[in-house]
Amino acid sequence: MKRGSRPTLKSSLFSYLPAIAVLAIAIWFGRSRSGPDLVPVLHDIFPGASRFEQSEGIYAAYSNDNALLGWAATGSGSGFGGPMVVLVGLDTTGSVVGGRVVDQRETPLFFRMVRAPSFFTENAGTHFTEINYDYSEIVGVTGATMSSEAIVSGVRDAVTSVAGPRFNVHLPQPEKPFEFGILELVILLLFVTAVATRRFRGRSADLIRWSSQVTGLIVIGFWKNSPITVAKITALMSGYFPDIRSNLALYLLIGGFLSTALIVGRSIYCTHVCPFGAIQQLINLIGGKQIKFPQWASRLMIGTRDVIVFSVIIAALAMAQPALASYEPFAALFALKGTVLQWFLLFIVMVASLFIHRPWCNYFCPVRSCDRVVKDLRKRVTDPVELQNAEFD
Amino acid sequence: MDFFNSGFFWFIEGILFCVVVIGVKTWAVDRSIPMPYWKWLALSAWILLFGFTVAFIGTSLGENEPTAAVKGGILFGIIVIISGAGLWRLITSGSEKSEEGIETDPEEQPL
Fold first, then answer.
1. What would be the CATH architecture of the domain defined by A39-167?
2. Does the global pTM surpass 0.95?
C-alpha cells in the first residue's frame, strides 16, 4: 500500500491472510491424520481370533478353525476436544466381550481420571440389551462428565451398529433434551445484564460489574468449572461442533463473547462473566496496588502472549488435539486438578494479581488474544482509517 | 525428611509463633499502630494458617508425597500470601492513609 493512501477494508483484511493461510494448513494437516489402527485392539478384545473380516463397518472375528467368535464395531460420542471413538466387541450370543477407547482428543489429565476400563470390565459378559449406560459410574472427577458421557454414547453407538444387522434388534436411541439449567440461565443473564447496563457509569456500573463477576466466579468457576478455554476455541476452529443440546452453555459463552465483542465492541465476557478475571480483580482489591508497566513493556508482553496463543492453536490444530492447547490454570483453581506447570502458573498469577491489574487477562489469556482480533476486525469494518494509529486497544 | 514428622519440627514452629507475636507487638508499639484484640485474633489465625501450610508441605514430603507437597503448598501458599496481604493492609490501616486500588475495566488499561 502506498504511504498516505487510505486503507480500505479489503486491504486491511489482507493483512490477516498469512495467519488465515497458516490456520487453514494446520486444520488440513490435522484432518489428514490417519485413523487409529484397530487390528491390535481387535486382537486384544478377541484374543482367540486369527483373522478379522470387515463388512459395512463391522469386524467379524474368526478363530484358527474358521469359527465365528463375534463382531466388533466402532461408535463415537461427543467428547470435550472432539469425537471419542470406542471399539466394542460382542460374541455370537450378543454378550459384551470387551471394549476400548481407540481415539480421543480429551485433556490428558481429565481423561486419565475417567474410569473407562472399569466400564468395559463391569459390562463384560452382559447381553447388549442389558448394558448399564449410566455414565456417572465412570466419572472420576468434576469436569470429566463430558468425556464419560462420550464414552457411553460411543458404546451405545457401536452396539447399535452391530445389533441391527447381526441380531436384527433395533435398539431405541435415548432422546436428548436441551440441557438448560442454572449454568445456562446465569450465562444468559450475565450477558444480557451487561449489555443492557453498558451505558451506566459510576457506582451503579461498579455494583453491576462486581455482582456479575462474583456470580460468574461462583457458578461458572467453582461450581461448574466451565470458562472459555483455548481448547474449546480450537475445537470449534477445527470444525468440531459438539451437540448443542448438551453443550448449550459452551455455545452461549462463545456466542456471547463473539457477539458482544463484534456488535457492542466491548469485552463483556472478560469484564462481567469470566470467573478467572473476577478472582484476579478480587485479589487486586485485597492487595490494593496497581503497578503500571511502561508502554513498551506492555506491548512486548501482549505481543509475546499473542505469538504463544497463535503457536499453541496451530500446534493443537495440526495434531488434531485441541485439548493439548489448554495451558490455562483454570482447572487447578476451580477443580483442584492440573499439571505441575498449571499449578505454578496459578501461583504466579494469583500472587501477581495482588499488585498488577488482571495479569492473566492482560499478559497470558488466549481469550483476550481472540478478543483483540475480533475487535480489530470490527475496527477495520467500522473505521479502517482510525486503525492506522490504534494497534493496541 | 524425618525432620518434618518429628516433635522438633513442631517445637520450632512454636518458637517461631512466639517470635512473630513478640516482633509484631514491638513493631506496632514503635510505629504507634493501634492493636485491638481483633487484630491479634486475625494475626493469630493467619500464623496458624501459615504454620498449617508449612506443616502440610513438610508432612507430605515426610510421607514421600512430593506431588501433594507441591500442589498443596501452592494452593495453601496462595491463600497464605493473599490473606497475608489483606492482613497487612488491615493491621497498618490505622497508621497511614489507606491507598485504595483503582478499579478499572481491562479495556481502559493503558496498554
1. Alpha-Beta Complex (3.90)
2. no
